[in-house]
Amino acid sequence: MNKKILAAKSSSKWFPMSAVGLACMLAWNSNLYAQQMSAPPANVDLGRQVLSELVAVKSVHSLGSTKAAQLLADRLLAAGFSADDVHVVAPKGHPEKGNTVVRLRGKAQGKPTLYIGHLDVVEAKREDWNFDPFTLSEKDGWLYGRGVIDMLGQDSAMLASLIRLKHEGFVPERDIIVAFTADEEAGGDANGVDFLLKEHRSLVDAGLVINPDAGEAAIKNGKKIYLTMQTSEKMFLSFEVEVTDKGGHSSRPTKENPIYRLSKALARLSDYSFPLHLTDTVKLYFKGRAVLEQGQVKKDMLAVSGDKPDLGAAQRLSQEVETNIQMRTTCTATEIIGGHAENALPQRAKATIQCRVVPGETQAGTEALLKRVMRDPSVKFSVRTPARPSPESAPSGPVRAAVERVTKSMWPEIAVLPSMTAGASDSIYTRAAGIPTYGVDAMFDDLDDGRAHGRDERINIKVYAQELEFMYRLMKAIDQVSIK
User: Fold this and answer.
1) Which residues are known catalytic residues?
2) pTM score, whole prediction
3) Signal peptide position in this chain (predicted)?
């Protein structure tokens, strides 16, 4: 507190503070609070410089990430990291899909903590944007550029935080590794995390993984409301289903028409809801989310969060897409083709069914259930994209406690919610490799105006500065978590 204010309080006479004095005190306290919430100015400047450089690289799928990977490696070496601890590696046949792995050496030989972040971004066309998507632009308190929210902003925050720790002389209890990787967005042919685990396991072998890309921090009506800790994600699985017939002239229609038969089978799938399957993560999510809701929705979320979920509450929550997908596996038709000529009966009709499977369920079980639902033996199944098992990481325990401590140290009112995401992230590779993995990030984004992958992608300047501070605190807090 201001020394003059303290002196006034300790005086034998106390005079009411003037309106001007009160305003000055409040402004001073507000500025101090803002400084505590943000990383030091020099670190924010470093983060923004790196972010600007990464945006300008244009690391889309067709061009690759090697230039971005080398840029970060050069930054790390200039910051004092040993060449023995900074590696740029790419798969054979894909020199453009480079990955950078850096290690901050710790005190002990225990298993390190690994942070992962992808360097590739979604393509963007200049004519679609109000700004050059591959130049970091600032306007009205926002930073614009492809990748600033997914996830070059988080990459630059991890880099700047690691350099800050290095310059402060911080020696972690165990090694901290950060891997900046290729080919996440396109589901491409050279995914960096998958490649590193298979070909360079010694560089990234860890006892715990933090993936900022899998976390979500939400703003609603201008107010921060929650931060998620992703503990699991649904498995991606797709099938091709096909009906065939001998065909014939269109003037002689039959009931064996493949288009009709397949359409009827798909209609039965459309009317079907998969069985209720509430994981431990989802129950904790609803329990925490209920605090932010009101009325019947609040009651229903609490009613499904216990050991014996209320089926009526689950049915009401199932009416909304966002809550329904948390409670069950989903499968939906995404592509369909059929026929070969206008005046001929179709000989073939084919569709793609894309599933998101709750952890703990299987590919074989999902296929068997789909066949029962579609109820037509003429529908032939083939697997288009096989499921990659991704076990749930423990939703309660020391990692969650550390995340909550860091979050509450900056935003006491914010709820931390364990989450299972319906979409895919690179966490699927580390979980499949047997490493507990958590998606954590504080890059708060507007629920009603999310621009990741879209036009004029942006991040609030103050939010970005706070992300830098959050990541720095998170790295120190997770270092204190005991890893078996």
Assistant:
1) 120, 184
2) 0.88
3) 1-34
